[in-house]
């Protein structure tokens, strides 16, 4: 038996593991009830045109307001939702809520820009995804071009299936962007075959951009490649004026990050951000 008593590494490791497992089981049980209990909330983060600083899109980012633990990050509970199958119900809820909110912003704020929704791996592989999306758009009364779906490179492993799913979505008229670009298995050869309108440069390349010559080279290369492939490009995780300056200089189309705004609840975003954009006439959909 490997496990020993006393204050040795094994015992500690084992206790730690049990606690971790228990927490996970508990979270999964709580997550099952989260939708019904209205504990899930969507935060919205603006996407800004690099050159005229107008608002060109808004990304929907899920939060879980746990009754005891408070706000839990999606990087913690999305994996639990994926493994337990709860992701199907949660994903559908997110897409419907985000579309409803954008329809409301159109009607009440004349805000005609797309809302971006992150697709989960399971959702992307659902065989009726395009019909599901179409059904939600019809139900909500939102035109397809005002919905953008974010996928990641790791979802594209099955090239044949991915290509046909993306083709169906494209025919529906929704926009498609590649999230976290540069962190997965980017096969540049397939990139040109997929109907992807936009690359989102992962924030890991932006973080040290100002001091790292290699990150500068990678970012400039991604921008140039995207443009050669007639794709739009947005940088994620932009926090400083220096990062913004480099991205502008390199021809990056759009910017998302704390520099402009953190993700905020809809009402909060209206108060601190949308009002000013409207007032300054700085709203316009991206051209792709
Ligand atoms: P993502 O789609 O790549 O979203 C960008 C993440 O970067 C968000 O984290 C956002 O809050 C954060 N971020 C934005 N600007 C900055 C910045 O300037 N600095 C820093 N340090 N971070 C910034 P968040 O909201 O915690 O979401 C994490 C991930 O969880 C998302 O990454 C996405 O993959 C996933 N996720 C979020 N909502 C959903 C959802 O509704 N469905 C699915 N399937 N996944 C979701
Ligand atoms: Mg995203
Ligand atoms: Mg990302
Ligand atoms: Mg991500």
TrEMBL record:
Q: Which residues form the EAL domain?
A: 24-277
Query: What is the top-level taxon of the source organism?
Result: Bacteria
Coiled-coil zones: none
Listed name of the protein: EAL domain-containing protein
């Amino acid at each position: 038996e490997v496990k020993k008593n006393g204050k040795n590494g094994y015992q500690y490791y084992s206790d730690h593991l049990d606690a971790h497992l228990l927490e996970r089981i508990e979270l999964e049980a709580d997550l099952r009830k989260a939708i019904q209990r209205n504990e899930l909330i969507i935060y919205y983060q603006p996407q800004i045109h690099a050159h005229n600083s107008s608002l060109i899109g808004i990304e929907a980012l899920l939060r879980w307001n746990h009754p005891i633990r408070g706000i839990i990050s999606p990087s913690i509970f999305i994996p639990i939702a994926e493994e337990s199958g709860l992701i199907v119900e949660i994903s559908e809820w997110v897409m419907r809520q985000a579309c409803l909110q954008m329809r409301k912003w159109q009607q009440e704020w004349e805000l005609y820009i797309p809302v971006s929704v992150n697709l989960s791996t399971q959702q992307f592989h659902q065989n009726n995804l395009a019909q599901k999306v179409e059904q939600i758009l019809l139900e909500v009364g939102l035109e397809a071009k005002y919905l953008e779906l974010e996928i990641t490179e790791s979802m594209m492993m099955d090239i044949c299936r991915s290509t046909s799913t993306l083709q169906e979505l494209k025919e529906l008229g929704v926009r498609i962007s590649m999230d976290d670009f540069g962190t997965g298995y980017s096969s540049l050869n397939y990139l040109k075959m997929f109907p992807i309108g936009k690359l989102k440069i992962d924030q890991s390349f932006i973080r040290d951009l100002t001091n790292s010559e290699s990150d500068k080279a990678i970012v400039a290369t991604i921008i140039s490649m995207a443009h050669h492939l007639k794709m739009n490009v947005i940088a994620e995780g932009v926090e400083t004026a220096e990062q913004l300056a480099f991205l502008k200089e390199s021809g990056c189309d759009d910017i998302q990050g704390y520099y402009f705004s953190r993700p905020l609840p809809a009402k909060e975003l209206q108060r601190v951000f949308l009002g000013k954009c409207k007032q300054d006439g700085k709203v316009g959909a991206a051209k792709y």
